Structures are given as C-alpha cells and as structure tokens.
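User: Hello! My lab partner asked me to get a predicted holo structure for this protein. The small molecule is magnesium ion, SMILES included with the sequence. Please write out the structure tokens.
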Amino acid sequence: MNSHTPAIACHQLVKSYPGRPPTLAVRGIDLVVERGECFGMLGPNGAGKTTTIEILEGLLEPTSGDVEVLGLKWKSDQRRLREQIGVSLQETRLSEKLTVRETICLFRSFYAKGLDPWAALDLVGLREKAAARVGQVSGGERQRLAVATAIVGWPELVFLDEPTTGLDPQSRRQIWDIVEAFKSQGRTVVLTTHYMDEAERLCDRLAIVDSGKIIATGTPTDLIHSLGGAHMVEVSGNRAEDFSLPIDLLSRLPSVKSVSVRDGVASLLTASPHIVLPPLVAALEQEGYRLTRLTTRQASLDDVFVQLSGRHLNEPVAVA
Ligand SMILES: Nc1ncnc2c1ncn2[C@@H]1O[C@H](COP(=O)(O)OP(=O)(O)O)[C@@H](O)[C@H]1O
Ligand SMILES: [Mg+2]
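Assistant: Hello! Below are the structure tokens for the protein in complex with magnesium ion.
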C-alpha cells in the first residue's frame, strides 16, 4: 500500500436512486481527504451525506464517478480495503441479544489484527457494561459501542455517519473524546453530522453539503472567516406597533458586513462589535425604537450555511 496516497480521493461522484422521478441524491462531489485528518461532511437532512459516505465505504455503487480509498479501488481491492477501514452506520443495527463484549469480539473477528476487545471497551468506557445485553444499554452507550465496533480492528480509516445524532450532551462529549483519541494516534476519520458544534470541535477540515453538492470546503476557522467577520450582533426592538427594524440603516452602520433578519431579529455580521454597538444603539434610539434584545456572539458554521443556502442547518426541508 502506498501511504503517500490520500485517505480518500473521489471525483465527480453522482448517485441517482431509481424511482419516478429518480432522486438525484449526490450531484457531482469531489473530495480529497488526507491521512491523519478528521474530515467532516456537514449538512442538513437529505443533503446526501449518508449516500456519499456509503459509496466511500464500498456499500453503495455510485451511478458515476471515481472513488479511491487508501489508494485502492472497491472493485479490485475489496478485501484489502475491508481490513483497513472501520464503519459505523447512521442507524447501527446491532444484535440486541449479544452482550456488549460479545459484540466487540464479533467485530474484532472480522480483522486479522486489532485491539484487544477489553482495550476497545476501555477506550469507549464500556468495561462495566461488558456483560450487559445490547438491548439493555442506553442510547449513548449503544452509540459508543457502535463506534467501538468501527475501531476495534484499529483501522487506518474510520467512517462515522452521524455519530452523535439524538444523544444527550454528555454522551455527545464522550463520543467526541473517543474520536479525538483515535485521531491522536494518527488515524483518519471521516464523519458526517448536521451539528455545527460537532463539526467545529472535531474536524480539521470539512465540506459543507447541500442538495447533493459541496457548497464550501475548508477548516472551520477559514469557513467562518470567509463570512467577512467573526462576530454576530443580534438586535430586536420595536417602536409603537412597528416591529420591523430599519435594515438599510443597520447595513450602513460602520463595520457592518451584512444584515439578515429572521423572526424579528436582525443579525449584523461584523469583525468589530465594539465599533458597531455604540452607533447601533444611538441610531435605533434616534429612530424611536425600544430595544428588546441586544447580544453578540461568535459567528458559526450555521451562519456560513445560512449565507450560502439561505437556510439554517437544522431547518426542516420544505417538501415539494
Ligand atoms: N434508498 C433510497 N432510495 C431513494 N431515495 C433515497 C434513498 N436513500 C436516500 N434517498 C434520498 O436521497 C437524498 C439524500 O439522502 P441521504 O444521503 O440519506 O442524506 P443525508 O444523509 O444527508 O440526510 C434524500 O432526498 C433521500 O430521501
Ligand atoms: Mg444521513
């Protein structure tokens, strides 16, 4: 195996699911994931993340396009590839009757080399649950077990599809720690998520996907800086019965890069909140507005998504 090749390289990936009409789930995706990085695909439900990752995992055939994983191709090198990758599916169906330890041992048996099952259980903090049946552990524990099944062969590359969806904050942080521990050993992680905080925390680089396409790629910091300011000033207010804010006026304030309004809250993107705030307050006061809210926060990957797509990441998609 040539370790100089990227972990993943795919070119013009397209996937159309048959039907009337067919669903064009992936519409020409190009990706290069380097070895040792944690690469994320961030996008809303239906963006094509699972379809893409399952093609990369060799579980789905693309309609067209080329995929190389660890310098190998699924058609000719299926066995070698399976040995070197680990997979955790979006909805992992593990046998409820097996114990946690039996499950780990089963997945360990798929690999010639790998972790000792107890070491894998320790890594995900499930030693105490070793004898529990899978059907009886909590959602967070089950998800940690799913991640453990993906890394027990200590693969070069691990795929995690929405590893923390539906979990409570503490369970999510536990999964993040496991991913970071795995990555710190020089391994490659490809994950999908619709949580911007997860992408920001875990990913060295990410692709923002929407409607089967990559709409932006970069480090989380670069993506946020691409907005043209790293802060959001959010303001709402009213005068008499008038709740609409004077957008033109807000846009003309010094250091304001852009203004968007949603649900009566105006969000002002800026690099310098300290420059924006005094004239903002003065201008609204002068126009007779009473402020009902004034906050500043760091700009986020969701703001990047909004700027590119006009929607929020976790907004329900309108069904046509
Ligand atoms: N097996 C399938 N048959 C038909 N359409 C599908 C199938 N799987 C997914 N889709 C559709 O493809 C699009 C992308 O889905 P998916 O890859 O699951 O997105 P994500 O993981 O980002 O939520 C969606 O419109 C979804 O309804
Ligand atoms: Mg999915």
